[in-house]
């Protein structure tokens, strides 16, 4: 979802059209966006005009994977506390 400024929101999955790779918006400062690959790693800086919405199928895959890892972490964390 775009913020009123026209920039994607922090946490949104987007496509860096310049590099052709997906990234999660981590921050917006000084007219730049900072992205990080969904798998993790180092952030990179990109101009807002080079950012496009991620393809719908990739967003759906990312949300499903993120939900699965969150659910697994919750279950594992709960079982550790119960032990």
UniProtKB/TrEMBL annotation:
Compositionally biased region (Basic and acidic residues): 45-60
Annotated protein name in UniProt: Uncharacterized protein
Biased composition (Low complexity): 63-83
Region of interest (Disordered), ranges: 45-83
């Amino acid at each position: 979802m775009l913020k009123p400024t026209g920039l994607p929101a922090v946490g949104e999955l987007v496509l860096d059209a310049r590099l052709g790779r997906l990234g999660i918006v981590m921050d917006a400062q000084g007219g730049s966006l900072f992205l990080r690959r969904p798998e993790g790693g180092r952030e990179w800086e990109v101009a807002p005009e080079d950012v496009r919405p991620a393809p719908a199928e990739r967003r759906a895959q990312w949300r499903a994977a993120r939900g699965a890892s969150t659910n697994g972490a919750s279950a594992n964390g709960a079982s550790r506390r119960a032990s």
